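Course exercise 7: structure representation. Students receive a sequence record and must write out the corresponding structure in token form. The form below is the worked example handed out in class, using Sulfotransferase (369 residues). Read each field label carefully; the graders check that inputs and outputs are placed in the correct fields and that the protein name is recorded exactly as given.

STUDENT ID: A-19
EXERCISE PROTEIN: Sulfotransferase
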Amino acid sequence: MAYRVLGRAGPAQPRRARRLLFAFTLSLSCTYLCYSLLCCCDDLGQSRLLSAPRCLRGPGAGGQKLLPKSRPCDPPGPTPSAPGAPSALAAAAAASAPRLPAANHSGSARMGTKRLPQALIVGVKKGGTRAVLEFIRVHPDVRALGTEPHFFDRNYGRGLDWYRSLMPRTLESQITLEKTPSYFVTQEAPRRIFNMSRDTKLIVVVRNPVTRAISDYTQTLSKKPDIPTFEGLSFRNRTLGQVDVSWSAIRIGMYALHLESWLRYFPLAQIHFVSGERLITDPAGELGRVQDFLGIKRFITDKHFYFNKTKGFPCLRKTESSLLPRCLGKSKGRTHVQIDPEVIDQLREFYRPYNIKFYETVGQDFRWE
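STUDENT ANSWER:
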């Protein structure tokens, strides 16, 4: 009836009828517009559901800046009608939940990544391992752990994640290196390193076993002045020439014996032997061969070294333009204790068969006799 009255309004009420018709039409249009805004997606948001929160697109979509209280739009997902699509309530809850940043185990591209070492200096104690470490870490393609982690002999139970956490960050083009000389004489170390990576490159710094044993004893004596004499520790019966192989200073120098354990897991081509004697007389030559073994360019040359006559071994210039050389610490280059020459001769005879077997195995004559 209301439409008929409006439609048939007489001349006396034309203005009032037009006003009522305009108001009704406007109300109908606003209702339709509000429904469209709630149910459909506009240019700024993706609010297809009544309960879905609105969002503003980020700089990647139109270059607009996000408003302070707006959240960025999520990547397009399945529509509500698709199988497995979340309900409107679930979508709203997910949108309002806090988002945790993704864990970054690899590190930034600029800082590098903490990785398990690709190369290890595994021995030997008092052979020159610290010198090799300090010399090779000058190379821009090598990052080395400064301390000895003793992972494969003392801390293996802590796991590889703990071991990796100790490593310096390296870029893809760099090699991670660590040094623990006691690995060479640890029975379980070869198998454990093999289980970490069968491609690990191994560096062994060897030295005349008699000289090495005296150096080992000298270091121990500086910490424990009350220990027995070198002669007393070296022999079970000197008259009969019975050497005490249970003493670690003597046993470490039996290189051929320890090498057998490593060759069960690693080919000889993966093990590089550095001469402790040549490291003193020709450090650049020895480091050149180490660089070749690691597959990196020969960056470290004779210009990086200066021979310190007081200490009796080379000191390092980090750069060719460096004026002041940097030498190893006071614990390196100690003056050895004086040993009876007859004791030295007896030990040389003891080590001779082990040395010969070692030379034959590695294909090098270190000339210790």
